[in-house]
Amino acid sequence: MTARDVRFLIPGHDTSDGAGVKLKRSLGQSARARLDPFLMLDEFSSDDATDYIAGFPSHPHRGFETVTYMLDGHMLHEDHLGNRGDLTSGGVQWMTAGRGIIHSEMPQQNEGRMRGFQLWLNLPAKEKMKPAGYRDIQAAEIPEATFPGGVLVKVIAGEIASEGGSVTGPIHGPSQKISTDPQYWDVSLRSGAEVTLPIPATHNAFIYVFEGDVMIGGHDGRKVPTHNAAILGDGDSLNVSAGSRDARFLLLAGKPIGEPIVQYGPFVMNSMEEIEQALQDYRQGKLTA
Ligand code: FE2
Hints:
Distance between the termini: 48 Å
Strand order of the largest sheet: 1-22-19-24-17-14-13
Strand content: over 45%
Helix content: under 10%
Order of helices and strands: EEEEEEEEEEEEEEEEHEEEEEEEEEEH
CATH superfamily: Jelly Rolls
CATH architecture: Sandwich
Bound molecules: fe (ii) ion
Number of helices: 2
Number of domains: 1
Shape: globular
C-alpha cells in the first residue's frame, strides 16, 4: 500500500450564505481551493438560532450535485419537482441539480443546535444537463464499518473494506451511474486510536476534521487541526491517528473529471457561454424545463 500524505491544508473560513446562515467554508473559498471533482465544502455549526434561522430560501442550481449531511438539527427541503423532505440528525440529502433545480432548505427549529455539512460535487459535461434528481437518506440507512482500536466509519457513499468485510453505502457510484464514484465517509476515532483506511488510487481525496485533531502518517506525522481540510497526495491508503482527544473527520474521495470549471454563484458549467445560457434560462423561467 502507498500511504497518502498531506499536500496542503485549507483552514475553514467564516462566511455566510443563503439568507445569512453562518458557516465555515474550506473547499470553494476561492477557485484555487477546489479538488476535482469537489467544488465546495461548508460546515455549519451553532447553538444560537440567529446563526441559522434565516435558512436558504428558494434558489436555483445547475450543473452539479449538492449533498447535505445533517449531524444535529432539522431542516425541510422543498423543490420545484414537488419533493418535500425532512432532513433530521444523521440524515443525508443527495440532490443532483443536473439541468436545473429550484429549492429551499429551511430550519424547522427555533432553538438548539444545528450542525452539518453541505458538499458540492461536480458533474462531467455530458451529465450537467441531465434531469434533476433527489434522494433522502435516513440515518438508519447509513451502514457502519468498524476497525480495531475504536474506529468507526459511517459509509454515506462508496464502499470500504473493513475487518468484517466490505461495507457499501446507500450512494454507490458504479451501480447508480455516478461517474465520479464518490466516497463519503464520516470517521470517528477514540483518542490515541490509529487506523489505515484503503482509498481507491484512482480518486482525488481530502479530509475535513470537525472534532479534535488528527495526524496523517503516524503519531509523529502531519497534524490536521479542527475545522481544516487536508488535501491528500496520491496513494491507495490513508494512515490517520487521533490526538489526546477523540477526533472525527469526513473523508471525501472521487474520480477527477478533468474539465474546465466556470462558476457563477449557484451555476457550475464548463464555459462562460453555458453560464450565460443558465442565467437566461433562469430569468425566463426555463432553467428546469
Ligand atoms: Fe441549494
